[in-house]
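User: Predict Peptidase A1 domain-containing protein's structure from this.
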Amino acid sequence: MVYYPTLFRSIIYLILFPFYISAKNDVAFSINLIRKNTPNNNHNVLPLSGFLSAMGKTPQSPIYAYLGHYLMELSIGTPPFKIYGIVDTGSDLTWTQCVPCNNCYKQRNPMFDPQKSTSYKNISCDSELCHKLDTGMCSPKKLCNYTYGYASAAITQGVLAQETITLTSTTGENVPLKGIVFGCGHNNTSSFNDHEMGIIGLGRGPVSLISQIGSSFGGKRFSQCLVPFHTNVGVSSKMSFRRGSEMSGIGAVSTPLVAKEDKTPYFVTLLGISVGNTYLHFNGSSEIVSKGNIFLDSGTPPTILPTQLYDRVVDQVSKQVAMEPIIDDPDLGPQLCYRTKKSLPGPVLTAHFEGANVTLNPIQTFISPKQDVFCLGFTNTSAYGGVYGNFAQSNYLIGFDLDTQLVSFKPMDCTKYK
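Assistant:
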């Protein structure tokens, strides 16, 4: 598990960047060519077109902030069974813990029991879908097993299946989506907390939720509005599908997505970062910046920058904050932190993406890991590229449009976005 000991020891961090596991006695698969495969059974639900024909009926899901992650509420199965999964634009597979679960982390709510759902359908090893997943081995019962891992060392193992996933519309009606491929996890390990029932994969790959449901909504588009860290857990915002990513008006800016070999992440180009009025070029000079040098990941809390840029950002922030940083707290390590009873009046930062300048106020850049302490919500990596984490994404309506290949930002009080 990737863990940042210098950044908020009170919070568990997962860098949800997928990789594919293959072992001699293990089941492996690569995530590719997954498509929606709708079963013919009706299960007494109205067709999706009936819900979306009227103006204003946009499918939505509530999102809640909890311990550095954002949990999305949706229902799975028939009858609908409510789950809360980590919103993750950095991975593709949607999965939840399923009964039986002999080697799983503890969760507060009951686990999904596929035997109690009339719409659950295992994917057979002999099916076309399982072969396209390149599953290495079948289970003894000829089921399509999966193993999916993350750079945090979190792993989920189980059975690949199809189910009905239910969202709600802006008018409060249910929006059922049949035949969605998901992971029914029977062996899930890592330091998940007891509110997290799995992960909602919203990446760009073909197995992601947005890729599977896009055709039902007339396009692969969605938007999110993440409330700031430490917002009361009872305050929710919305994830909107179909509409909401076509943003315009005062403050709306867009930057192009960049195609890379890894099809999952939302890669964009960061030209530099301004601290107050001081501009810091991504490379430290006027050299041309490589396209797609950072990706937006709602499953990673801090923003991760290459060390050479991170060091310059920290240096400028420390120069522009008229306070002495904390140097005597072993819990914080070398992270740039300040002790104050009020919100830190830190400098305004600006992320200069290609074609889009995104302003970051202290509420988006300084996080309070404990009482009267505020720390810069950035960390560093020896790699060339980086990750634009969920702290920096808060209080912005962010639209992801896979059809136009754009990501759009519009400043918003996400605690009031409904």
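Residues 307-320 form the longest helix (14 residues).
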